[in-house]
Amino acid sequence: MKLKLQILQENDVNQSYLDWYQNEKVVRYSDNQYRSFSIEEQKRYVKNCLASKDTDLFGIFDEDIHIGNIIINRLNSVHKWGEITYVVGNTDYWGKGVGFFAVSEIIIKAKKVYKLNKLCAGLAEGNIGSQRVLEKNGFKLEGRRLKQLVFGGQFYNQLDYGLLL
Ligand SMILES: CC(C)(COP(=O)(O)OP(=O)(O)OC[C@H]1O[C@@H](n2cnc3c(N)ncnc32)[C@H](O)[C@@H]1OP(=O)(O)O)[C@@H](O)C(=O)NCCC(=O)NCCS
Which residue, among 80, 84, 63, has the nearest Cα to 130 in the 3D structure? Predict the structure, then answer.
C-alpha cells in the first residue's frame, strides 16, 4: 500500500464512492445511514468543502485508488480546536492501518498547517475500530454522553475524545 491524503476534488466523486454509503457495515455508526446521495449532490458537497474556510475534506488514497475520507471541521474556531470524522469506505482495506494512518496525518497537519491546540472526535460506544484508531493516536476519553445517538433503531452513548497538540 502507498497511502496518502489529498484534498478531495469534484472529479473524485464516482459511483464506487457513493456505494460506500450503501454498505451497512460502513454506516452502522454514522448519520449517513439516514441519507442517500446522488453523484450530483455529492459533487456539490465536495465543492462546498473546497469553498469553505472552516472545513477541509481529504480523500484517503492508496496510490490512485480512493478508499476513504477524513474531514477536519471548525478550522476557524477562535478556541483553536478542530473536529475530525473519518471513514474507510472500501472495506477491503479495513484492519490494515488505514484509519490509523489517516488520523496520524491529520494530527501532523493540525499542528503544522492549521496551528490548532486541540483535536476532538466523537463516536458511538461500540464502534471499537474507531475508538482504537483514536486511542492508538493518543486521544483521551473526555466524556460519555448517555444515549445521545440513535443508529439502527437503538440508542448509543457518545464517547467524546480529545487530543492536546
Ligand atoms: C473505524 C474505521 C475508520 C477503522 O479503520 P481501519 O483502517 O480498519 O482501522 P486500522 O486498521 O487503522 O485499525 C486501528 C486499530 O483498530 C483495530 N480495529 C479496527 N477495526 C476494528 C474492529 N472492528 N474491531 C476491533 N478492533 C478494530 C485494529 O486492529 C487496530 O488495532 P491494533 O493496531 O491494536 O491491532 C473503519 O472501520 C471505518 O471506516 N468504519 C466506518 C466508519 C466509521 O465508523 N467512522 C468513524 C466515525 S467516528
Answer: 84
Q: For helices 128-136 and 98-112, give the axis angle rounded to 10 degrees.
A: 40
pTM to 2 decimal places: 0.97
Whole-number pLDDT of residue 37? 86
Domain that residue 10 falls in:
3-116
Atom of ligand 1 lying closest to residue 68 CA? 39
Q: Looking at residue 137, what is its pLDDT? A: 98
CATH number of the domain encompassing residue 42 = 3.40.630.30
pLDDT digits (tens, 9 = 90+) for 81-127: 999 999 999 999 999 999 999 999 999 999 999 999 999 999 999 99
Burial class (CB in 10 A: 0-12, 13-18, 19+), 56: buried
Look at the chain and report how many structural domains it folds into. Answer: 1
Cell of 160: 467524546
Q: What is the 97 CA–ligand 1 centroid distance (Å)? A: 8
Residue ranges around ligand 1 (CB below 6 Å): 26, 29-30, 85-88, 94-100, 123, 127-130, 132-133, 136
- The cell 481529504 sits on which residue? 58
